[in-house]
Amino acid sequence: MTQPNEPKAADVIQSEHEKDEGSHRTPGTLVLALILLLSFAVYYFANWKALADTWPVR
Amino acid sequence: MATTANGLAALEGHVPDEEKPGFKTGNHAGQVRTCETTGLPVCLTAQRFIRLNAVAAVVFLLIGGVAALLLALTRWPTVHLLPADWYYRVLTAHGLNMLILWIIFMEIAILYFAGTTLLNTRLASKGTAWVAFGLMVAGALAINGAVWSGKADVMMTSYVPLQAHWSFYLGIILFAVGALIAVINFLATLYIAKRDKTYAGSVPLVVFGATAAAIIAVVTLLHGAVVMIPTFLWSLGLTEAPDAAWYRLVWWGLGHQSQQVNVCAMVSVWYLLGTLTTGAKPLNQAVCRGAFVLYILFINLASAHHLLVDPGVGAGWKIWNTSYAMYLAVLASMIHGFTVPASIEVAMRKKGHNKGLFGWLFAAPWKNPGFSAFFLSLVIFGFLGGITGVTLGTQQINIIAHNTLRIPGHFHTTVVGGTSLAFMGLAYYVVPLIFQKEYPAKALARLQPFVFAGGITVMAIAMSFAGSYGVPRRHWDINFTGAQFSAGFDSTAHLMMGLVGIGGTIAFVGLLIFLLLTVAAVFFGRSNAGKKMEAW
User: Fold this and answer.
1) What residues of chain B lie within 8 A of the CB of A16, using their CB?
2) CA B159, CA B145: separation in Å to the nearest integer?
3) What is the band of B487 on the pLDDT scale with cuts at 50, 70, 90?
4) I want to staple B213 with a disulfide (CB 3.0 to 4.6 A). Which of B44, B168, B265, B278 is the partner?
């Protein structure tokens, strides 16, 4: 809807079940997903480290 | 294909018309208009209730927002605005107005929109919609009346044996029953759409997601009835107090699951705004729908993480619910977290924005507040809310975070930076398309999602760091003024609490811009009836 010649939302929703023949490459989203997973791994590890420092197992 | 009188373009191909998915002849009996901008058929009865619920949502957002500012300025030790009794009163009001009233009124508006407009059908029952709305408003007024008059300083959880005035519990019951009736009206609308064959093929993904939210809402509201009716009778002096451990367990079936309804509705709004702002289509219907089914099956179990330090339930129960079953719901969020931006990437690359890895993202319509609110909501929910949520929901880690400010730091990125921001983005389309009024001061509207998202992000991260220093949640005075022994927190924690106050104030400014512009548009905005909405 940002461009005047784009299809209307109704047309997009109406045809959402149809398979598109075009490319579905999403390398940018894949990189974003990898950044998310890396961030999670760092944060998760840091929290286990904090727990281990708080209550060390001897 | 058989289309409505709205002039939808016919699909081409060899499939017989009646077998193609999409819209067919509606059942509106003349009570319908065609949206000039989207081409979607808008049921006029549903339109009235979408407007009513959206207005009610915004009213309670204002109340909850003012409460939020007061809380942020109280927890900022240098300001420390409110006295203790008013702090807990305002905290109660903030939680209920924001987490329950604003969001559920908005969700009912979404259900009425998805159920009618996207399926080309009328609303099942006008009378039922009035009853539902009346009960919800009556309940919301009763809740606020009890809280602001000082008769319910029990905070949102209202844990037994804390007791509020009976009108507080009655208000929650009335609101929940009203919402349940609205959900049933939505499900009945799905039924008559199927019966009258107003669409062919499967329902659109947004409707599927809204239906998943509705199913979770039914379970949620039934939990509310189970826990609130005995508590209401106790407040009247008719029965003994409910068992405190039982209350906590069942209450979170209401308290947390209502937030899972939010997640489901928010994801549906992401898909809808993706289509409205960039023309994106879901990448894989089976995967996206499967993720919604995972929500229905497993997200309720996440309620258990509220009881991770509760002595009333065993370790096995805690670990099963939060460290195994909950991950299947997390998997669903990760699927949506991938498919939503991926659908945007595909749509933008099709338009020729192929430069490098992120050319499509830089070229996205960031000046459109519908897009910026939705995409910022996605990032805040996924990167901040998701990562902290999974970590804090781990039983062993939770022991160093429970009841600290890390918890509000987490959920302000999910329900505020995530859900509320997504719903604000939706409002930038609801007002022009359903109220048929144009937003004034569009430059300010374009800025608003960034101000709100920035403020919430600063506040939530500062909350998380302060919580890591041990600062408790729901605490009026971290300096422990007048204590008999030396207590309090070091300067870093105080710095973080200052950032909580600053971030909260910035977020409030963003909220205020949204409210002022939306009220100005609804009541004084230029009409676009019969015309396309102005491009953002």
Assistant:
1) 21, 204-205, 281-282, 285
2) 19
3) confident
4) B265
